[in-house]
Specification:
Low-confidence stretches: none
Helix content: 10-25%
Number of helices: 5
Largest sheet: 8 strands, mixed, barrel
Shape: globular
Strand content: 35-45%
Order of helices and strands: EEHEEEHEEEEHEEHEEEHEEE
Number of domains: 2
Distance between the termini: 6 Å
Radius of gyration: 18 Å
CATH superfamily of the largest domain: Diaminopimelate Epimerase, Chain A, domain 1
């Protein structure tokens, strides 16, 4: 029987019970793919990560949802970096503030200021965008909105993992969005055959603020809302570039309000189009599991 240590963290959290939850296994050597997948299902969080040795970075990281493995994801990157730093330091826990993590999507640099972590989106092969095979009216119907609620046509954006982005005209429309699970069969699919949509709106009353929500179809049916989605926030940076937004640009992106898990994501797109996403990480517990 082998024993594996894990930690539970909240990412993009401004308070103890805010943020997006994450489980991180400190040392996954000896685990096979089936065990990692089973553990992700056991914990049943949006993602669980597994730390392994790397010859290219401070650590190699594998990310599993309860149903499948991911090439890259945002909040698992930041939460895992927090754990890697702590494991690497025997003295000052804040001394290692620049590190890199190896994912299937590539090596991702991560920086920290205290407990606020920032990753640079991998963008393998450069920024990728594609028009969605769906009209504005069709997309609005899927979200239980009206066509004139959309600010722009839906757009696929890929800065590490491709997702469908839908810009809305108002934060009120973001709050009213209700994906129609009865129409799940006609939802557009990503390159990995996943059905997701990220809706967002710029807040005119609070310049520099964005309100966002991220929905995805879960295995077995139904639609789930994610509290805080770093990869989608990075793709928002890609959306800004694709739409000719003035650079550099910085936004505070709020997510998770509708599921009582408020998240604050810090988005920055540099003058040379590097996309950075950051947020605070709070560790709330540790444990061990025997297999």
């Amino acid at each position: 029987m082998s024993t594996y240590a894990f930690r539970i963290l909240n990412v993009f959290a401004e308070s103890t019970f805010g943020g997006n939850q994450l489980c991180v296994f400190e040392d996954a050597r000896g685990m096979d793919d089936a065990t990692m997948q089973a553990l992700a299902l056991q914990f049943n969080l949006s993602e669980t990560t597994f730390i392994l040795p790397s010859e290219r970075a401070n650590a190699r990281v594998r990310i599993f949802t309860p149903g499948y493995e991911m090439r890259f994801a945002g909040h698992p990157t930041l939460g895992t970096a927090h754990v890697v730093r702590d494991l690497a330091n025997t003295g000052d826990a804040l001394s290692l503030n620049a590190l890199s993590l190896e994912f299937t999507a590539g090596v991702v640099p991560v920086l920290a200021e205290g407990d606020v972590w920032t990753f640079t989106a991998p963008q393998p092969g450069g920024l990728k965008t594609a028009a969605a095979n769906m009209t504005r009216a069709g997309m609005a119907a899927l979200l239980s909105l009206k066509e004139d609620n959309l600010l722009a046509a839906p757009l696929w954006v890929d800065t590490g993992t491709d997702q469908l982005l839908v810009a809305l005209r108002s934060t009120d429309a973001v709050r009213r969005a209700r994906p129609d699970s009865a129409q799940i069969d006609v939802w557009p699919e990503s390159s990995l055959e996943r059905k997701t949509v990220y809706v967002f709106a710029f807040d005119p009353e609070r310049p520099g603020r964005v309100l966002s929500r991220y929905f995805f179809a879960k295995q077995g049916g139904g639609v789930v809302e994610d509290p805080g989605t770093g990869s989608a926030c990075a793709n928002l940076g890609g959306w800004l570039i694709a739409n000719g937004h003035a650079l550099p640009a910085e936004y505070n992106v709020e997510q998770g309000e509708a599921v009582q898990r408020p998240c604050l994501l810090r988005l920055k797109v540099t003058a040379d189009s590097a996309i950075q996403v950051g947020g605070k990480v709070i560790e709330i517990g540790r444990g061990k599991i025997s297999l």
